[in-house]
Write a structure and sequence with these properties.
single chain, alpha/beta, Rossmann fold, three-stranded mixed β-sheet, 18% strand, globular, binds 2'deoxy-thymidine-5'-diphospho-alpha-D-glucose, NAD
Length: 336
Amino acid sequence: MSKKGILITGGAGFIGSNFIPYLLNKYPDYHIINLDKLTYAGDLSNLKEVEDLQQYEFIQGDICDEQLVGDVFKQHSISSVIHFAAESHVDNSIHSPNSFIKTNIEGTFVLLEAARKYWSNSRYPNQRNRFHHISTDEVYGSLGETGLFSENSPYAPNSPYSASKAASDLLVRSYHKTYGLDTVISNCSNNYGPKQHDEKLIPTVIRKAIEDKPIPIYGDGSNVRDWIYVLDHCKALDLVFHKGQTGESYVIGGNNEYANLYLAKTICELLDQLSPKEKGSYTDQISFVKDRLGHDFRYGLDISKMNRTLAWNPEEDFIGGLTKTVKWYLRKYEKA
Ligand SMILES: Cc1cn([C@H]2C[C@H](O)[C@@H](COP(=O)(O)OP(=O)(O)O[C@H]3O[C@H](CO)[C@@H](O)[C@H](O)[C@H]3O)O2)c(=O)[nH]c1=O
């Protein structure tokens, strides 16, 4: 794609802050503008490796701010958008859904409108202008013990979070169908790896374990998630952004389905090796707590479209990726 500015929203979040260094490393002549509000979930220290690069610019701001977003498009000749910015934590959406509706739905709408208006008046009419919307597998709802979601599965979101992401996906779809905007949507499963916010399951298990506190497992721990190493997700995003078919959706998963209790025990066993307790095992700290309201039982993905059309497959071995992740958090928490 072109050398014009690529707007990355939410680049200070977990996946964005893994993706930006990946992209700049692979495409050193790209110019990246990272627009991020820096909510509690954003952390610029995760972007230290790129902050001094000329090809990288950070702007603190809200995607709901129409004026700001319009100015960013004009001032930076934005040629494409990769839209990560979102409120992402399901538990927060259950307690306080407002910001999810605002950021995830209205924010996406503001970006789509800016893209539609700016690109239709572009000084570069032959340039390809793409809007890549980063989304979640949670839009498809919950599976039982069997079956897999694919791009053809009906939308059936269960939490305010997933409903807000489903709404934003449908807005993106409508801008393709109605205005011919060049859009792609990717719906990914649970990411793990360095730089994830402390609130999510894997960092929570590691942090509580080394703080010698109870490790909270919701319900009976039988809920299943499909885990993908964040850099495998970044590689998939690179392919979808550059080579995905306009108007299409792509389901991205790690082929690593594990029940939460099994995952927590595996992390504890890794910690037993990497940072042994004086007595006993970290698994002794696992503690069952009240279940999440409307807790989706299982997500599992059929990733054959990514494989067939973009020759992508997740590469990271789960225990290898988890070991790197545990070591990263041990360094982070032991420093803190
Ligand atoms: C934080 C926490 C979570 N859990 C459970 C709830 C879930 O079944 C599982 C993973 O929880 P979380 O880490 O919050 O992630 P989950 O709700 O699956 O959603 C994640 O994965 C989604 C993709 O599937 C993303 O769209 C979301 O933004 C991301 O937050 O672990 C616990 O049992 N204990 C905990 O303390």
